[in-house]
């Protein structure tokens, strides 16, 4: 039986998941969000760009305590509704706010970053450079997250300039371990995840 496209986003889609227009093209596919969350089981995680909750919900299902931030109040309403469908709303603190402004007052084991890629047109550029991320360039977003913790996970377009992504690790002081993976859904490359600090596989084995 063929899987419905919306069930690839949320397996419980038919139980009452709600989305808005931006949510449709920006939510992380559930399979990818589960994989990302597996790196941080039972830790305190800040999801700086929560959207409709695709990632925050999977972190909570992996027994994390989650601080879920989004600048758009409607997104937080939708994310709360969606977390209730999965029965994990009790593990998530929902915050309407600007992650970049709030970061200096936050503490966590891991920061997850899936900032806007600038709409579906990100696919049209040959190489997606980090300055194309919103609401600020990727170097600035990373630097702000780095003040909270070196353990950072970044979800980026499949055409991202990998040299720049690695540069984020080298430019850190001290230099951070980094691991990069391609994320496929039904054999299509949907995005790239960069794991920094002790969210990498090698450092977790230590
Ligand atoms: N990972 C999410 C999708 C994130 S889309 C999911 O799976 O559902 C990116 C989100 O970043 C959008 O919802 C947008 O409202 C939010 N955003 C943009 N600028 C922001 C800022 N400065 N602080 C917090 N959230 C912001």
UniProtKB/TrEMBL annotation:
The keyword Signal does not apply. Pfam families: Methyltransf_15. It is found in: Cytoplasm; Nucleus, Cajal body; Nucleus, Nucleolus. Its main location: cytoplasm. GO terms for molecular function: RNA cap trimethylguanosine synthase activity. It catalyses: a 5'-end (N(2),N(7)-dimethyl 5'-triphosphoguanosine)-ribonucleoside in snoRNA + S-adenosyl-L-methionine = a 5'-end (N(2),N(2),N(7)-trimethyl 5'-triphosphoguanosine)-ribonucleoside in snoRNA + S-adenosyl-L-homocysteine + H(+); a 5'-end (N(2),N(7)-dimethyl 5'-triphosphoguanosine)-ribonucleoside in snRNA + S-adenosyl-L-methionine = a 5'-end (N(2),N(2),N(7)-trimethyl 5'-triphosphoguanosine)-ribonucleoside in snRNA + S-adenosyl-L-homocysteine + H(+); a 5'-end (N(7)-methyl 5'-triphosphoguanosine)-ribonucleoside in snRNA + S-adenosyl-L-methionine = a 5'-end (N(2),N(7)-dimethyl 5'-triphosphoguanosine)-ribonucleoside in snRNA + S-adenosyl-L-homocysteine + H(+); a 5'-end (N(7)-methyl 5'-triphosphoguanosine)-ribonucleoside in snoRNA + S-adenosyl-L-methionine = a 5'-end (N(2),N(7)-dimethyl 5'-triphosphoguanosine)-ribonucleoside in snoRNA + S-adenosyl-L-homocysteine + H(+). Keywords: Cytoplasm, Methyltransferase, Nucleus, Phosphoprotein, S-adenosyl-L-methionine, Transcription, Transcription regulation, Transferase. InterPro entries: RNA_cap_Gua-N2-MeTrfase, SAM-dependent_MTases_sf. May form homooligomers. Interacts with CREBBP/CBP, EED/WAIT1, EP300/P300, NCOA6/PRIP, PPARBP/PBP and SMN. PANTHER family: S-ADENOSYLMETHIONINE-DEPENDENT METHYLTRANSFERASE RELATED (PTHR14741), TRIMETHYLGUANOSINE SYNTHASE (PTHR14741:SF41). This is Trimethylguanosine synthase. It comes from Stephania yunnanensis.
């Amino acid at each position: 039986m063929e899987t419905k496209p919306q069930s690839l986003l949320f397996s419980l889609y038919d139980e009452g998941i709600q989305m808005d227009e931006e949510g449709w093209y920006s939510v992380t596919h559930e399979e990818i969000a589960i994989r990302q969350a597996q790196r941080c089981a039972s830790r305190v995680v800040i999801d700086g760009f929560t959207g409709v909750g695709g990632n925050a919900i999977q972190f909570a299902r992996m027994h994390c305590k989650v601080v879920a931030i989004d600048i758009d109040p409607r997104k937080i309403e939708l994310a709360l509704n969606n977390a209730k469908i999965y029965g994990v709303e009790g593990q998530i603190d929902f915050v309407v706010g600007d992650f970049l402004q709030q970061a200096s007052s936050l503490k966590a084991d891991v920061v997850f970053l899936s900032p806007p890629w600038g709409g579906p047109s990100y696919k049209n550029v040959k190489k997606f450079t980090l300055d194309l991320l919103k609401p600020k360039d990727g170097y600035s977003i990373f630097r702000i997250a780095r003040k909270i913790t070196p353990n950072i996970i970044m979800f980026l377009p499949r055409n991202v300039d990998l040299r720049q992504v690695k540069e984020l690790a080298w430019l850190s002081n001290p230099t951070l371990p980094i691991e990069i993976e391609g994320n496929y859904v039904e054999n299509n490359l949907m995005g790239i995840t960069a794991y920094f600090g002790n969210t990498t596989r090698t450092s977790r084995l230590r």
